[in-house]
Specification:
TIM Barrel, two-stranded antiparallel ribbon, 46% helix, 8-stranded parallel beta sheet, 10 strands
Amino acid sequence: MFSGAIVAIVTPFKAGTVDEAGLRSLVDFQIENGTRGIVPCGTTGESPTLSHEEHARVVEIVIEQAAGRVPVIAGTGSNSTAEAISLTAHAKKAGADAALLITPYYNKPTQEGIYRHFEAVAKAVDIPIVVYNIPGRTATNIEPATMERLSRIDNIVGVKESAGSMKQITDIISLCAEDFTVLSGEDFLTFPLLCVGGKGVISVVSNVAPRQMADLCALFLQGRFEESRKLYYKLLPLLHILFIETNPAPVKAALAMMGKIGSEEVRLPLVTMSDINRERLRQVLQAQGLL
């Protein structure tokens, strides 16, 4: 179910509220350009600043608009296990194909606490679960040995690995079963991850360049390695510039420049891009043929 380029979709806002029409348009834009799955309410979707009602509605809108054309992997993580179970249960009821759960943040659990957290959610809600490991935001890394334990739970089917370490990626792939899906959570590591046995990426860059990211993965998975490698290096400036400030401010700025959303609005404590970096972003977008 989960391979290739999957987008971690932004949540567009208009005057402080979710821009539902804009979100539906983004879903269609992604599917029309080859994206293989959609993740609403992840980090890129600004889940920490969505109310529970908004979170539920964003998930529902994406499921409705995708209409079964691609899988929807709803972001349902929390630093509270009980809340994660509740969000995941809603995602299943709404018709999501899977759930993406971030490691509990701020609490800083031990490896045993991490294991029991995901085990509890997996037991409570019978839905495929993709673990999301991003220690730069959570302050806790899921060690490969813990990931191997988690991979033995029937409905924990994969990981979005965002530690930024190829060693960790290769350790996970070597320890876990062949059918455990390892996806990159770092756009710039997509091609290297594919080379060592990963299956794709949950991508920020796909928001603005869905066809290019889809092609990069598809070419590799078709065995057209050199074409994929060349496309990766062509895209590399874009893969870097979209993280010049805290995600998702740059990607929202890019989408606004492209006319794909009506506003680059983000919610505090995030702020829109500085003028200097916005101009640098514009230059890269122009060089990539996206403006």
